[in-house]
């Protein structure tokens, strides 16, 4: 029998979303409330294991009485609040943000972006071929994961996961300012010369594929990566006694990458180098 912990009861707040009454526990964000109400709000920088960063601005909604649009991922729901998720103003803002991102960043491996571009009639090509892009080759300097900054939207999720919110390694940070801002390790060195401990928790939270398993990168380059043919099996890591959960992604009877369930009370989506990358021995058939 599964026992669900009750936790501390929280007072319910009542407010309005698109003309309909909504009730959510106190402390919930507008995005939490929208999802509970079945509203599909696009978001890129929001992560269920990290504190909101308000970086991508794709999830903005209109709140009655507010001077500006507010990010749904971080704005707390308040009693009596009137929220409009699909107003002309909110839709126009999302359209512009998507156009700016897609014109300057390679979003080809970002889930659902093609769907959002179509929904909001965004036309990133209108900025022309001279739109600012990094045009940087992927950094392949180790055997575990690849950094492709052409796909980075500066959401800072990798910085937070590597820093004080989870790993406390602080190998990743933001270098430069303004248009020159970018994600880097100290002194922009090769990953092998940095403080990285290869836990891969930055890969787990990256929303665009700017950070990816070397195995996935190689398969995509070869044209053999096919997520629709992959199965996912959750098991327990056998390396130590902590009890971390692993989700094995298998294609053609080969493990192609490992993730971890975000709702697991032990790992919350985080792993160490052994759990994340130490799976080769499982399929060594020699």
Notable characteristics:
single chain, 286 residues, alpha+beta, five-stranded mixed β-sheet, metal-binding
Descriptive notes:
The protein is an alpha+beta fold. 20% of the residues lie in helices and 19% in strands. The protein contains 7 helices and 12 strands. The protein has a 5-stranded mixed sheet, sandwiched between helices. It has a 3-stranded antiparallel sheet with strand order 10-11-12. It has a two-stranded antiparallel ribbon with strand order 6-9. The protein is globular. The termini are far apart. InterPro entries: 2Fe-2S_ferredoxin-like_sf, 2Fe-2S_ferredoxin-type, 4Fe4S_Fe-S-bd, 4Fe4S_Fe_S_CS, Mopterin_OxRdtase_4Fe-4S_dom, MopterinOxRdtase_cofactor_BS, PSI_iron-sulfur_center. Residues 11-89 form the 2Fe-2S ferredoxin-type domain.
Quick structural overview:
With 286 residues, the protein is α+β, with helices and mostly antiparallel strands. It has helices spanning 30-36, 88-104, 113-119, 157-162, 201-205, 214-222, 273-277, and strands at residues 12-17, 20-25, 60-63, 70-71, 82-84, 145-147, 172-175, 182-185, 211-213, 231-236, 245-251, 254-259.
In terms of topology, how is this protein built?
Elements: E1 12-17, E2 20-25, H1 30-36, E3 60-63, E4 70-71, E5 82-84, H2 88-104, H3 113-119, E6 145-147, H4 157-162, E7 172-175, E8 182-185, H5 201-205, E9 211-213, H6 214-222, E10 231-236, E11 245-251, E12 254-259, H7 273-277
Parallel strand pairs: 1-5
Antiparallel strand pairs: 1-2, 3-4, 3-5, 6-9, 7-8, 10-11, 11-12
């Amino acid at each position: 029998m599964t026992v669900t912990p009750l936790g501390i009861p929280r007072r319910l707040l009542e407010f309005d979303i698109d003309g309909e009454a909504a009730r959510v526990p106190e402390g919930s964000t507008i995005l939490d409330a929208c999802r509970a109400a079945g509203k599909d709000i696009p978001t890129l920088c929001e992560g269920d294991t990290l504190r909101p960063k308000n970086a991508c601005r794709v999830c903005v909604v209109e709140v009655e009485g507010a001077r500006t649009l507010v990010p749904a991922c971080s704005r707390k729901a308040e009693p009596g609040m009137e929220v409009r998720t699909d107003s002309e103003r909110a839709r126009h803002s999302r359209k512009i943000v998507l156009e700016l991102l897609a014109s300057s960043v390679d979003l080809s491996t970002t889930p659902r972006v093609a769907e959002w571009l179509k929904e909001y009639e965004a036309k990133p090509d209108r900025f022309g071929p001279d739109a600012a892009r990094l045009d940087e080759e992927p950094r392949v300097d180790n055997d575990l994961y690849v950094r492709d900054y052409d796909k980075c939207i500066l959401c800072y999720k990798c910085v937070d996961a590597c820093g004080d919110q989870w790993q406390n390694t602080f190998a990743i940070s933001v270098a430069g300012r303004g248009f020159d801002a970018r994600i880097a390790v100290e002194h922009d060195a090769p990953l092998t010369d940095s403080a990285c401990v290869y836990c891969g928790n930055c890969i787990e939270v990256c929303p665009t594929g700017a950070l990816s398993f070397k195995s996935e990168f190689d398969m995509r380059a070869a044209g053999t990566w096919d997520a629709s043919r992959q199965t996912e099996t959750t098991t327990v890591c056998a390396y130590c006694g902590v009890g971390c959960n692993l989700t094995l992604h298998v294609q053609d009877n080969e493990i192609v990458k490992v993730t971890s369930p975000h709702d697991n009370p032990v790992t919350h989506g985080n792993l160490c180098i052994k759990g994340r990358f130490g799976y080769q021995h499982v399929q060594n058939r020699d």
